[in-house]
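haha ok so turns out i had the wrong file open the whole time. this is the CORRECT one, sorry everyone. sequence first:
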Amino acid sequence: MAKEGKRQLDRAVDDLEHEVPGKARRFIEWARSDRARWVRIPLALALIAVGILAPYMPIVGVEDVPVGLLLLSYDIPFLRKPMAAFIEWLIGLWRRLRGKSPHRKS
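then structure:
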């Protein structure tokens, strides 16, 4: 069961990497690596704490909670399937919104 969750998360994050620009893509690749684990866990916990304690701030806020949960899901197996589903939902929403954009070039 844990392996299936890991596969779903990997597929979802692979899709996410195709939707983001270069610097963000490189950060995601690095954050997924095993060598980033000791940075990933404290960063995830800090993002979740900031998102909960300061949800009203303009640069950091409630939007940091899902990012922190995504980072944490690589190390906590029971978060993998829900985060994979959330990422796929966000990518689908992004693609629908991008497809309906009046400024889209054909």
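Helices lie at 2-19, 22-32, 37-53, 64-73, 80-99.
again sry for the mixup
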